[in-house]
Amino acid sequence: MRTVTYAIGDIHGRLDLLDDLLDLVEADAAERRAAAKVVFTGDYMDRGPASRGVVARVMAGPRRPGDSFVPLQGNHDDLFATAVARGPVIPDWAWTLFTHTVLSYGVTVETMAGRDGELRRHAAYLAALPLTHDDGTHLFVHAGIRPGVPLDRQDPEDLIWIREPFLTFTGRLPRRVVHGHTIMGDRPVVTPNRISIDTGAFRSGRLTAAVLDPEAGSEPSFLQAVGEPDRAALVREALLVESIAGRPVSPELQAVFDDFAEGRIDLDTMERRSTRLGAGR
Question: Which residue, 10, 49, 67, 232, shows the most beta carbons closer than 10 Å to its own?
């Protein structure tokens, strides 16, 4: 049986969207009479409500005989594994996300000692994941690569963190790069040298898979699981931005965030009102 590759971008704790997207992948592969190789480009953790469930689902592997999972490591996964193993030696913003993420394991940072066996197993699993998958035509990686550097000399930090000069590079790369890490909107971005599949699942409610089928040609098609934005995650993200910038959150700004979290206003309205109140500057 032939194999079709499905590359899934940043999940960030959205188990609901992951389950829906894997259903779509299975149905699409069955229609093509193909096995599905599912490559995850990392960032299973943080932001959304179900980091624990996402990692458990990826670790469980595919449901159909003949299918395979190829999970890669993202920067949030690396930070999570580091925080579990070594404590608060990561940036403050990452530690803030980590304290939320451990809640999905039924513990807190203060109570996890002695009750965090699954959390530590997941952290060890994430720490051991590869940074790239090369099929000879596409290079799958979380963030990207540094142009002009051979693949075997890429800095691991670049592979999970880089944005520029990778994102604006228009020249030839050793492989066409399939990556996540940088949200480019709620639709994937395709250029001659890269395929960007982070559609901001926690923000947009859209989790994307690129479908790479050699029999269908060299250009990808896409599957998307569509749900609601994670309002709580978006508010936490906005509060984190203010905290990093050292800006106190005024009662008026907090009221805007509360209105959004409770569904009284939409995301555009929250962003417009919060900007008027000085947020994000």
Answer: 10
Nearest-angstrom CA–CA distance, 94 and 134: 29
* CA–CA distance, 116 with 208 (Å, rounded to integer): 31
Query: How many angstroms separate the CA atoms of 126 and 120, rounded?
Result: 10
Helix, strand or coil, per DSSP, at residue 173? coil
Using DSSP, state whether 160 is helix, strand or coil: helix
Q: Is 6 helix (H, G, I), strand (E, B) or coil?
A: strand
Sorting pLDDT into bands at 50, 70 and 90, what band is 280?
confident
Distance (Å, rounded) from C-alpha 278 to C-alpha 259?
Answer: 17
Q: How many helices (H) and strands (E) does the chain have?
A: 10, 10
> Dihedral through CA 30, CA 34, CA 40, CA 45, nearest 10?
20
Share above pLDDT 90 across residues of the chain, in percent, rounded to a whole number: 91
CA distances from 158 to 33, 64, 153, 165 (A): 37, 34, 11, 10
CATH class of 3-226: alpha beta
Condensed to tens digits (0 to 9), the pLDDT of residues 82-116 reads: 999 998 899 989 999 999 999 999 999 988 887 78
* 5 and 39 Cβ atoms separated by less than 8 Å: yes
Domain map (residue ranges) of the chain: 3-226, 231-276
The predicted structure's pLDDT at residue 281: 67
**CA-based nearest residue to 102, from 50, 31, 157:** 50
